[in-house]
Design goal:
By secondary structure, the chain is an alpha/beta fold. The strands form two sheets. The chain has a six-stranded parallel sheet with strand order 3-2-1-4-5-6, with helices on both faces. A three-stranded mixed sheet has the order 7-8-9. The chain has nine helices and nine strands. The relative contact order is 0.14.
Length: 185
């Protein structure tokens, strides 16, 4: 059975985690909020008390974090994912961060021997809970293909926008178009 780590169980991450469990993945969940981890466990995930425990046996690591600083620290900090994940794990960052931070994370992942994609989402909390998110994905084609089943468990649209950071660029364009549409209305 494919194992997935889910780090970041806030408004979006909790629904994404639940949909991974519903799709039949063995999900290990971690968040700084013990209440969020408890809710994930009520929905079938396994709890982890730290990042090492969360990622040490996972084939895929999915993150949904507030800022690029958090993403870089969680993946590449002193006790980060890249130091603790099993060899060959694929990293999927679903956070909305800057293009540069996404490219930096991808480069650091490659230097650490891992594959990574930036896959920010569109659709909001309701789509995260319903499993109907849209993912705008940046990264190598083979990594996107490897991650496709995981993304498909959480969403209905997966758009490969090109190389590392391009998922974030597409998300920025999407947000700008939404803002323009709202202003026009």
């Amino acid at each position: 059975m494919t194992s997935v780590s889910m780090i970041g169980l806030g408004n979006m991450g909790s629904g994404m985690c639940h949909n991974l469990v519903k799709a039949g993945y063995r999900v290990t969940a971690f968040d700084l909020s013990t209440d969020a981890v408890s809710r994930a466990c009520e929905n079938g995930a396994q709890a982890a008390s730290n990042i090492h425990e969360c990622v040490s046996n996972s084939d895929f690591v999915v993150t949904m974090l507030p800022t690029g600083e958090h993403v870089l620290n969680v993946y590449f900090g002193e006790r980060g994912v890249s130091r603790e994940a099993k060899k060959g794990a694929v990293f999927l960052d679903c956070s909305t961060i800057s293009v540069e931070e996404a490219r930096d994370a991808n480069n650091l992942a490659e230097k650490s021997g891992f594959s990574m994609i930036d896959s920010p989402v569109s659709g909001g909390v309701a789509a995260a809970e319903a499993g109907t998110l849209t993912f705008m994905v940046g990264g190598a084609k083979q990594t996107v293909e490897a991650a496709n089943p995981i993304l498909s468990a959480m969403g209905k649209n997966i758009i490969h926008a090109g190389g590392a950071g391009n998922g974030q660029a597409a998300k920025i364009a999407n947000n700008m178009l939404l803002g323009i549409s709202m202003l026009a209305t």
